Amino acid sequence: MKKLPVILCILFSMCFYNSFSQTGNPLFTNAIGVQAYTYRSSFPSRIIPVLDSVKALGITEMEGPNPKNIAPEEFKKLLKERGITMPSIGADYGLISRDPYQIVSLAKLFGATFVMVAWIPHGKTFTIDDAKKAVDEFNREGRILKENGITLCYHDHGYEFGPYGDGTLLDYIIQNTNPDYVSFEMDIMWTFHGGGDPAKLLYKYPTRWKLLHLKDIRKGIANDLTGGTSTNNDVALGTGQLDIPGILKAAKAVGIQHYFIEDESPNHASQIPVTIAYIKGLSE
To answer: Domain 6-281, what fold?
Structure first.
């Protein structure tokens, strides 16, 4: 099946929006952001058309950094021309460990005040030794970033929900990182897929979560601790397993600062308008 042109997706999303519209104050009132990884397949050859489509969707924030085939200075220029800012960039665990000042420089170039790390290297199973090493690394790197006006956030990925003590390995990481240096970005789908409850976790650590990845998982997909699933299991918000209204209510209550849609599905072009329409249609 051919992908729908963006304009048709937007028109369809308007109908979808009306079907979810409720009376009352809107639940989601933040700027709509998107994770650049969503466009990993199209960015290499279509940077400008992709950014034009992002603008057309009303998206005003992007979590980066830049695609590999364009200099960060040029990418920043293209973003600025379209009214898109980059408040957060992703960083590889190994790179930020070896050269945190390189990450600081890149964040400052984009004007980003957050740097997120989305994966802790580990073997087949994520262990307490992996968690302890990451805690030491994050505390060290987080201090350096804070000294430069940047907040380090760890992005959970599902594998951290293995049991440890009275909680999970993620509890251990949160409780043993210095809150002055280390904050967190919740990926709500990976949190759910690992067996966690996104809303409860937001309330449990209300001062530690700063950023949110918005994504949903296909109905019928079982949870596990692998930190992975087929990209075809990414679906538009409101059509999968997650309690999106409950999560957004919790996120609003704890003061999440930036929300980024991340849709890894090959169908993201048709799904993201549905996601946007859905969250805009929710009310308190």
So the answer is: TIM Barrel (3.20.20)
